[in-house]
Amino acid sequence: MVKIGQTELNDQPLFLAPMEDVTDPSFRYICKEYGADFVYTEFISSDGLIRNGRKSVKKLDIFDYERPIGIQLYGHLIEPMVEAARIAELSKPDIIDLNFGCPVRKIAHRGAGAGMLRNIPLMIKMTDAIVKVTNIPVTVKTRLGWDENSKNIKEIARMLQDVGVQALTIHGRTRNQMYKGKADWTLIGEVKNDPAIHIPIIGNGDVDGPETAKKMFDDYGVDGIMIGRATMGRPWIFKEIRHYLETGEFMPPLNIREKVELAKLHFSKSLEFKGEPRGIYEMRRHFSNYFKNLPNFKGIRIKLVTSVNTEEISSILDSIYEIYKDVEIQESGNSIDETVA
Prior knowledge:
Layout lengths: L1 E3 L2 E3 L4 E3 L8 H9 L5 E2 L3 E2 H5 L3 H5 L10 E6 L3 H12 L5 E6 L4 H4 L11 H14 L4 E6 L9 H10 L5 E4 L14 H7 L8 E4 L5 H11 L3 E4 L9 H11 L8 H19 L3 H4 L2 H7 L7 H9 L3 H15 L17
Parallel strand pairs: 3-11, 4-6, 5-6, 6-7, 7-8, 8-9, 9-10, 10-11
Antiparallel strand pairs: 1-2
Helix pairs in contact: 1-11, 4-6, 9-10, 11-15, 13-14
């Protein structure tokens, strides 16, 4: 069992990474349905939250069926982050997660996200202040370091633990790597196996299927695994991994009917949470990813991602099954450009 604050999780839990413009309530719903043990909101700007920005405040919407769930905050100044944590606490998440890992230039170069890796004393002071003002368990997500010359995650982990962080997620790249190259899990394993570390350590980076997940658990001993980009177009990856971990066998791939029904469920939830037309617009990236491996799909895809009519979209989804029901679908990994917090 893995415990974060008062939240108890099964052994080898699987976490959905917070992703901007991706992990909204509809996507979180689908991932929970397919086995995610823990989910997060999209990351929320502390400045936007304390100024009552509509988009930031809306991201605080969480639902009981999603639990356990974390609200993730980012910012570069202590006072706004402290105030944002107080506001987030009112939504009663299971944890408040601090984003010290987002590598996107407009965030990191302001000193927020992974930018905190260039000012470790401020990172620790901010974390300490937030831990002291909230009754919600505080966790952190970060990276190995700012660049190849400053991979100081082992020291950072100890300092974060000392100020009361109750779990730490580590992405196996530096900020300068962004999402390029291969994630290095060696240092993640060293943090986990540091005898001074007693909080759960969650590994993140390049987990794209059951075999990869099992290897990370087996080789590095992490308490949990967080999955981000590989969930796009494949939210059932959590179920695939759990099946493999428990049985040593691969789960049969989803057939075209199952994918169509999943896309329709996701679409209905997007409309439920966001209405029209926003619920339609924000499904377009998901539609493209759900059916990206179908041959000669371009014409259908164009119709699917340009229609603004709910009934027409539902009809197009139904037609996909009829057209492709006898076609074998080749699964492949996923790569997206959205901000992964």
